[in-house]
Specification:
Layout: E1 9-12, H1 19-36, E2 43-48, H2 54-67, E3 71-77, H3 80-86, E4 91-95, E5 104-111, E6 114-115, H4 118-130, E7 143-145, H5 149-163, E8 175-179, H6 189-195, E9 199-203, H7 224-232, E10 237-241, E11 248-251, H8 260-274, E12 279-284, H9 290-298, E13 302-305, H10 311-321, E14 326-333, E15 336-338, H11 348-362, H12 365-369, E16 377-383, H13 386-403, E17 408-410, E18 415-418, E19 424-429, E20 435-441, H14 445-463
Helix pairs in contact: 1-2, 1-4, 5-6, 5-11, 8-9, 13-14
Length: about 475
């Protein structure tokens, strides 16, 4: 059984993330917690997004948790970062499929504000497979309810004020359009931005698990209404969220989507510049642009990479390996940001607040992103049967570096080659589809893509 992907358990509710599975996961989490905890009984915070199936799955998880011997604190419908915030000092379960279609749902697990690491997820998977018995009847947990949504909103507002220099209304004079995509960011992001002084107009800001306004995943295509609205109006920026509020997309006043790596570089630059540490570190992923490394390096920091979906593991690794002078000031992969001074979770609401404040400080989006060097970027998917992926990647690891003898090669997360002119290419197998994908960035993007594609296709053909 392979339950966990790069972001928890996720899939169709009819045949994968069923109430039966949710019950089993709840019991497994209860047993896992009781194995390592002395507190009796431990507490698990339980929340859910606005999908039609979320409350049913939450009820099944709750039954599993309490019959597994732990108490449950139900915090209701809120964004995933809100649940993560509420899980500080205890455990958390969030029912969400993030940006997936309404037919899907999922389960994400947290401990003290951070996602379960791969070791903990592996243990849960084994416990689910073992189909362990419930706790003794006298050890069943209890349930209570708390309204923590306002507490989370207040904390994000307070954090933005702290981060943006202490002004109580750092967004005064800023005009923002927020497209919440009928997700649960509807009950947080507009309210936080208004509390910070912004003029806010909303699109699709009613929570509806059928996502009638647009697809839940915010992309340049699905954000067409937002882009048009911003372009035709007098707004400083637009913000697009996914279904559970952990992702964010930024639209400039011209209606164009600002590249996700540029946004990442802007935030990384800000946090490194603001740090008083002698060793400020930004954690990112192998597919992230070299423009991030440049922005961080220019401010005296360093960039470290970790596999996709494991920012929390990368943060822990750098903290454990660092010195007293080391500070992980920011962590992010495209679209998803961890504001480490706020907590260890991905938080699109905090990103909306901080980025809007940085636009206010700069005067406009164009001025904010001007220091970031943008080069042409391309993502390419090359068909490859699952059975040939391993051998093809072994060949690519040997043969691709021969095309770029001046490059710096890393094979920790696929094959990544960085060139002296800041061009780079990353080749890695898809974990969910029959493709080998590569990401490339270069002023001469056509040549880099053509050379890489040729090697990848030859290696796949030789491995089939």
């Amino acid at each position: 059984m392979n339950l966990f992907g790069t972001a928890g358990i996720r899939g169709p509710v009819r045949d994968r993330v069923t109430p039966k599975l949710a019950l089993s996961v709840g019991q497994a989490v209860g047993k896992y917690i009781r194995e390592g905890e002395t507190e009796t009984p431990p507490v698990v915070t339980l929340g859910w997004d606005g999908r039609e199936t979320s409350q049913s799955l939450a009820a099944a998880v709750e039954a599993g948790l309490t019959s597994g011997g732990v108490d449950v604190l139900r915090v209701g419908e809120l964004p995933t970062p809100g649940l993560a915030y509420c899980s500080q000092g205890r455990y958390g379960v969030m029912i969400t499929a993030s940006h997936n279609p309404p037919t899907d749902n999922g389960i994400k697990l947290f401990a003290d504000g951070e996602e379960f690491d791969s070791g903990a997820e592996g243990r849960i998977e084994r416990l689910v497979t073992d189909t362990s018995e419930p706790a003794e009847w006298s050890e069943f947990g209890t349930t209570r309810t708390a309204d923590e949504l306002g507490t989370y909103r207040d904390r994000v507002t307070e954090y933005a004020v702290e981060t943006l220099g202490g002004n109580e209304e750092p967004l005064s004079g800023v005009s923002v359009v927020v497209d919440c995509g009928n997700g649960v960011a509807s009950v947080v992001t507009p309210q936080v931005l208004r509390a910070l002084g912004a003029h806010v107009v909303t699109l699709n800001a009613n929570v509806d698990g059928t996502f009638p306004g647009r697809e839940s995943k915010p992309t340049p295509e699905t954000l067409g209404d937002l882009r048009t609205f911003v372009r035709d109006g007098e707004f400083d920026l637009g913000i697009g969220h996914d279904g559970d509020g952990d992702r964010i997309v930024i639209v400039g006043p011209d209606g164009d989507v600002v590249h996700e790596d540029t946004i990442l570089a802007v935030l990384a630059r800000h946090y490194v510049e603001a740090s008083v540490s002698d060793d400020p570190v930004v954690v990112t992923t192998p597919n992230a642009s070299a423009r991030i490394d440049e922005a961080v390096r220019d401010q005296g920091g360093r960039t470290e990479r970790v596999r996709l979906g494991a920012l929390h593991e990368g943060i822990a690794r750098e903290r454990d390996a660092g010195t007293d002078e080391t500070e992980v000031v920011f962590a992010a992969e495209p679209w998803k940001h961890v504001h480490t001074a706020l907590g260890g979770w991905i938080d699109g609401v905090a990103s909306a607040a901080v980025l809007s404040g940085l636009v206010a400080e700069a005067g406009d989006v164009a001025t904010l992103i001007q220091p970031i060097t943008e080069r042409p970027y391309r993502k390419v998917s090359v068909p490859c049967p699952d059975g040939a992926k391993s051998q093809a990647m072994e060949r690519i690891e040997r043969e691709l570096p021969q095309q770029f003898p001046e490059g710096d090669v890393s094979t920790e997360y696929g094959v990544r080659i960085e060139l002296p002119d800041a061009s780079w290419v990353l080749v890695r197998p898809s974990g969910t589809e029959e493709y080998i994908r590569f990401y490339a960035e270069s002023d001469d993007i056509d040549t880099l893509v053509e050379t890489t594609r040729g090697v990848v296709e030859e290696c796949i053909a030789a491995s089939e």
